[in-house]
Known about the structure:
By secondary structure, the protein is mainly α. The chain has helices at residues 4-15, 20-27, 31-40, 60-69.
Amino acid sequence: MLKEKSVLEMQIMYNQGCSLKxxxxxxxxxxxxxxxxxxxNKEPKYSARPRRSxxxxxxxxxxxxxxxxxxxxxxxxx
Length: 78
């Protein structure tokens, strides 16, 4: 995940005439990443990922009900 500072640094170095290879070496990112953000003058956009399904999703209500039933005395592990 790129930070705004890194993207801004790449854009400044590119505008000053530094080569993509040199910028990649200094920043530690690949040349393709440097090319993408240095030439486009865009900030990286990250969106929230969709929630993944889990094995217990179908049993979540049942498990919550069982925990609520045993509220004062918790269910033993044995």
